[in-house]
Amino acid sequence: MAQQIDSQKATNPLSLLPYPPQLTSQASGWSGIYVEHHQQSAFDLPEQIGSQHIICVHQFQQPTQLERSLDGKCQTEEIGCGEIAIIPAQVAHQLRWNTPGNFTLVMLDPAHLHRMVQSSIDVENFELKPQSAIPDPLVYQIVQALKSELEFGGMGGQLMVESLTTTLCVHLLRRYATRKLNLPEYKGGLSQAQVRYVMAFIEEHLEQDLSLDVIANLVQLSPHYFASLFKQTVGQSPHQYVLHSRIERSKQLLKQSELTISQVAQLIGFQNQSHFTTAFGRIVGCTPKAYRHQI
């Protein structure tokens, strides 16, 4: 009988793996998504049924064979680096492999998947189709970016994680739904009043870990709908706009010699001086210290 697994209640959703994850988002405060990166030895995973959708991105250094039972279908697969598997919620899954390897797991709450696009289309009756060992470059890139967030201490912040999660949810629904889902391409952008309202809110809260969900709610739009219209109107994604706004604010603060660079970083919402210095250098082309000497 398949074991029921709830990743919202377990420290390690796939609790029967030999070793705990090397990286986990458990303490990161991410909403609706849970990420783990594993390096595991050979193992035999008994049949399990999860309450979340699981996306597994394989990062093996060489093609590896494994035996998988997914939704009652047994097969032997040869997987390569970057290939993904999708195990939908409430679908039985069993796995065996004989070679050590790396992989990253992303778990999505089904309700969160639906909420990302709820104002776009009725998705309550859509489910994901199980997938085994398939290439999907976009999913791979998104999961690698989420893994980097865990590795380097959350440099992008909640807004970037939510943006990546929204893109992932929309892509999964478009490509892997049980029946064809045509999410509309939004045209026209936001109204001038909406843009002014959102920009004013962002400027007043740059020191906070801003949330895409909160910003979208200001104009009563789903995160996906809002992000699409915002980029059409402003020319940048919400995450890019907030990042550039923080850097512009930091330029003004760096003129105040009584503030340390660490204090400037805190005042514009960076977790630490290192993250601020990296972002500043990427956008401005020099370090905050060098910029301060130039002004």
Question: How would you sum up this structure, described in words?
Answer:
There is one protein chain. The longest helix is centred in the middle third of the chain and has 20 residues. The chain has 295 residues and is α+β, with helices and mostly antiparallel strands. Helix content is 39%, strand content 22%. About 2% of the residues have low confidence. A six-stranded antiparallel β-sheet has the order 2-3-10-5-8-11.
| Structural domains: how many | 2
Uncertain residue segments: 7-12
Total count of helical runs of at least 4 residues: 10
Strand content: 15-25%
Termini gap: 69 Å
Oligomer: single chain
- Quick one: CATH superfamily of the largest domain? Jelly Rolls
CATH first level of the largest domain: which class? Mainly Beta
Structural class estimated from helices and strands: alpha+beta
Mean model confidence by pLDDT:
86
CATH topology of the largest domain: Jelly Rolls
Spatial sequence of strands, sheet with the most strands: 2-3-10-5-8-11
Gyration radius, rounded: 21 Å
Give helix and strand order, one letter per element, not per position.
EEEEEEEEEEHEHHHHHHHHH
